[in-house]
Amino acid sequence: MAIDNDKIIDDVTQSEYKYGFYTDVETEMIPKGLNEETVRRISKLKNEPEWMLEFRLDAYKKFKAMKCPNWAHLKIPEIDFNEIIFYAAPKTKPTLDSLDEVDPALLETFNKLGIPLEEQKIFAGVAVDAVMDSVSVKTTFKTALAEKGIIFSSFSEAVQHHPDLVKKYLGTVVPSHDNYFAALNSAVFSDGSFVYIPKGVRCPMELSTYFRINAANTGQFERTLIVADDDSYVSYLEGCTAPMRDENQLHAAIVEIITENRAEVKYSTVQNWYPGDKEGKGGIFNFVTKRGICRGESSKISWTQVETGSAITWKYPSCVLMGDNSVGEFYSVAVTNNHQQADTGSKMIHLGKNTKSLIISKGISAGKSQNSYRGLVKVIKRAENTRNFSQCDSLLLGDKCGAHTFPYIDIQNDSSVVEHEATTSKIGEDQLFYCNQRGMDTETAVGLIVNGYAREVLNKLPMEFAVEAQKLLQVSLEGSVG
Amino acid sequence: MLQIKNLHASIDGKDILKGINLTVNAGEVHAIMGPNGSGKSTLSAVLAGNEAFKVTEGEVHYFGKDLLEMSAENRSREGIFLSFQYPIEIPGVSMVNFMKTAVNEHRKYKGLDPIAASDFLKLMRDKKELVGIDSQLTNRSVNEGFSGGEKKKNEIFQMAMLEPILAILDETDSGLDIDALRVVANGVNKLKTKDNAAIVITHYQRLLDYIVPDFVHVLSQGKIIKTGGKELALELEEKGYDWLK
User: Fold this and answer.
1) Structural domain of B61
2) Within a domain: B129
3) What is this structure's pTM?
4) Which of A207, A440, B7, B183 has the least CB density, counted as fewest CB within 10 Å?
5) Which of A179-188, A334-343, A375-384, B192-201 is predicted least confidently?
6) d(CA B227, CA B4)
7) B interface mutation test: which of A437, A449, A456 has the most B CBs within 10 A?
8) Is B73 helix (H, G, I), strand (E, B) or coil?
9) What ipTM did this prediction achieve?
10) Which residues in chain A have their CB less than 8 angstroms from residue B82's CB?
11) How many helices (H) and strands (E) does chain B have?
């Protein structure tokens, strides 16, 4: 057909990254490089109890014995850990109970990112934990939440104030030896968020963590731990951005979720780390281990992710369905453009009877990018009458990108039903012409069509996030199709 | 408003249009009839700016401007509307969102602000009523799962929303039962004013019982071989196309 696909693709893939600025704040850093001393130093800086240091050192030992995984459909350049700064913190006072104590430059940074930290200015009903580089800068609405018995704090604070809870749950979902990057995180993690929802409590507002990498040559290693006790509910959001730099930066995080009897956790991510430039220079390497365990019966964990950023994404938010009748869900939109690479998907491990899982994955590839779905559905013998439905769709923009699907299915009984559907399609020129004929330019048309394609997933996001995510999809593909 | 002079067009190297001449003035309805493969749909696609077709010769002026130089979206914004013979499905995109985007693109082109949500909903309601389209259709994704008749009604609804100056209806009657045909024709007639015009492309005469043309042109092998008044359509119905050859 006569439409110049290359031009179209060039047009849509060449947009600017909006969050690429750098904030000039005084930053406290430790020397670069990774060794046992690095681990001890981080622990000491955080004034941690002995058991926490033990946990880290044990993880570091395991990490040293492991190798970077090479099974993903990714080209991962060798990472030189001796060139990375493992701890960088904007210099602030140690406790931040009032906003007056937060450095105005930091407030301004988060304002610019659309995350105002003044409670009265925040979207009604969203509490935020703002993390810059290695530390939490501010957690909002802490007092209001505490009245209901909800704990929402930075991870470091939780270690100080709720050591029993942290000790009880830390590493129970993602053990430190789980994988290479999990071991690394367990050794050097610097901050993150901690959430505990007590029995019978429905969290009255959305909780969210906003991660920002600012300093150069640093890595970000945060951990999130969410515990939902019996009959409780919480919806949790995560967002992230980083400055534009020519060097790659490493982000290796862990998220652990535990739901007890009849509890429900909804976890949504809009991942917008700097993806690198058009030539594939720079960008974040995003190696993340996210896993939840439905420990209690009839409990539920639902992951929703919109992945548009990062040079490399390696991420498989998973559910271990241990309690009978528990439910796991995974909704994903992953966009790759230019030279981005993504290998993402989910694992649903059915251990309990009558457990159900659902996987909806929508991949969108443009430019010269590679986008893979990788998923595992496992049903053990005793997990009778389980159900899984997986749908993996890929949309290609142009003919220089790749879409791949790697489903793994392992079923050990006869009473379970597992279904997998997959489609691959291209945006049709007839669709584009139809939109053009109604007065839309091609870029607008692509945005509209892509958002329609991803709608099933976007609908799962909380309102404010859904609007943001829609815009983000459009911007991510700008200059990639016409 | 529209002057077509000696228009030649091809697809994949195959010549389809071989010298079309046609003038359309405000207030007129032109019917273009002809056997399958005569180039009717190609003519509509070329006028709407479908780049799959290549114009090899000739010129087209629209209000004095060179139409062939304009992008498809600008032709739409300048008031040219094509009702598709086979309307396209866009899964997941609601009719509301689709129409709102289209209306706002048209407004932007005219230097107007985006339409307010309440005004837009009222506009949708009014036009739905005017066209007589089932209001459930507009709550669904664009053409997804629509029946043939619903798709055609939806085209007329979109036409009502965008208020074109020159509407091109490409075989809008094909696949319609008589009730749907009436709905579509009524819609077209209600939208008719002395300032706009329509080109109605059809294979059969029956649509012209409802939309009465000022001129009937017979297209055969890429050329207009006969032009007449509305009675020409009746003659064609009776005698077929062969007597013209």
Assistant:
1) 2-37+51-240
2) yes
3) 0.81
4) B183
5) A334-343
6) 15
7) A437
8) helix
9) 0.95
10) 437
11) 7, 12
